[in-house]
Write a structure and sequence with these properties.
By secondary structure, the chain is mainly alpha-helical. The chain folds into two domains: 132 residues, Tetratricopeptide repeat domain (Serine Threonine Protein Phosphatase 5, Tetratricopeptide repeat, Alpha Horseshoe), CATH 1.25.40.10; 86 residues, no CATH class. It is elongated, with a radius of gyration of 32 Å. It starts with a helix and ends with a helix. The N terminus is likely disordered.
C-alpha cells in the first residue's frame, strides 16, 4: 500500500469517527419540537462577527474603509478583530491589532484600547509602530483624568504612561505630544494641591496650607500654579509672623514672574507690614528655584 493510499485511509477513518461523535451528540440533545436540521444549525451556529472565508487583506481594507469613509469605528473594529482572530500569524494581524486599538480610542472605549495597545507592544516591541501603540495607552489614560475635585489616581497613571513614551521613544513624534500632555497632567496635580492649600488657608491652618503650597513650588515648579503658590506662601507666612520667609517668597515671585498679578498681591502684603521683598538665600524657597535654574 502506498503512503498516499495509507493517508487517505487514515483521513477516512477520522472522518467516520467524527461523524459518529456528532451523531451521538445530536441524539443526546433534548428534543424540543425542532427537527434534526434545526438542532444541527443550533449546535454549529456561526458567530455573526466571524469571517473565516475572507482573506486578511480584504478584511483589513474593509476596516479602513469603514473607519475613514463611513466613520463607523465600531464596525471597523470588528473587521480588525476578525483579522487578528482568523489570520493570527499574518502581517495583517499585526496591523489590525494596532488599528483595533485606534478604533477603540476613537470610540472612547479606553479600556479596550489599552488592552489592544498593550498586547501590541508586548507582541511587537521592535515594530516601528510600537511607539504609537505606547502613545495610545498614555493618551487613553490622559483622556480619563478627572477634575481636581476628585481623586487624582488616574492622573498619576497617565503621567507614568506618558513618561514611558518619552523614555522609550525620545526621538519619536509621539514623545513631543507626550511631553505636552505631561505638562497638562502636572498642572492638574498642582491644581489639586492648590485647592487643598486654599482650603487650609481659609481655615487658618497655616502649616497645612504651607505644606501644600510647598509641594507645588518643589514638585510642580514649571506649572502655571507656581505663581499663585508663591503668593499664598507670602500670605501664610505673613499671617504667622514669619516675615523672612514671606519676604523671600515675594522676592522670588517678583524675580521670576515680575509681570504676574500674583506678584502685585504679594508685594502689597509685604509692604503692608512695613517691609520690602527680600530674598534669603538660605530659604528653602530660594534653594528650590535655584535647583531647577529658575532663580
Amino acid at each position: 500500500m502506498s503512503v498516499q493510499r495509507g493517508m487517505r485511509g487514515f483521513h477516512k477513518t477520522v472522518a467516520q469517527r467524527l461523524r459518529l461523535a456528532v451523531s451521538l451528540i445530536l441524539l443526546a440533545l433534548p428534543l424540543s419540537g425542532c427537527g434534526t436540521g434545526a438542532l444541527w444549525d443550533k449546535f454549529f451556529a456561526k458567530d455573526p462577527d466571524s469571517f473565516p472565508d475572507e482573506p486578511a487583506d480584504k478584511l483589513y481594507n474593509e476596516g479602513l474603509y469603514l473607519m475613514n469613509e463611513k466613520k463607523d469605528d465600531k464596525a471597523a473594529e470588528k473587521k480588525f478583530e476578525a483579522v487578528d482572530r482568523e489570520h493570527p500569524y499574518s502581517d495583517w494581524a499585526r496591523k489590525s491589532l494596532l488599528m483595533s486599538a485606534y478604533a477603540s480610542y476613537q470610540q472612547g472605549d479606553y479600556d479596550n484600547c489599552i488592552g489592544s495597545a498593550t498586547r501590541y507592544v508586548t507582541l511587537h516591541p521592535g515594530s516601528p509602530d510600537a511607539a504609537y501603540a505606547q502613545y495610545l495607552i498614555a493618551a487613553s489614560q490622559y483622556d480619563q483624568i478627572p477634575d481636581i475635585s476628585r481623586d487624582q489616581g488616574r492622573t498619576e497613571k497617565a503621567m507614568a504612561a506618558l513618561q514611558e513614551v518619552v523614555r522609550k521613544y525620545p526621538t519619536s513624534e509621539y514623545a513631543i505630544s507626550a511631553k505636552a500632555k505631561l505638562e497638562g497632567a502636572r498642572d492638574q496635580l498642582a491644581g489639586k494641591e492648590m485647592a487643598i492649600g486654599r482650603y487650609y488657608l481659609q481655615k487658618k491652618d497655616y502649616i497645612a496650607a504651607i505644606n501644600r503650597f510647598k509641594t507645588v513650588v518643589t514638585r510642580y515648579q514649571t506649572t502655571r500654579e507656581v505663581e499663585e503658590a508663591l503668593e499664598r506662601l507670602t500670605e501664610a507666612y505673613m499671617a504667622m509672623g514669619i516675615v523672612g520667609e514671606a519676604q523671600t517668597a515675594a522676592a522670588v515671585l517678583g524675580h521670576n514672574f515680575p509681570d504676574s498679578r500674583w506678584y502685585k498681591d504679594a508685594y502689597n502684603l509685604v509692604k503692608s507690614g512695613g517691609l520690602e521683598p527680600s530674598e534669603n538665600q538660605g530659604s528653602w524657597i530660594s534653594r528650590a528655584f535655584k535647583k531647577v535654574g529658575l532663580g
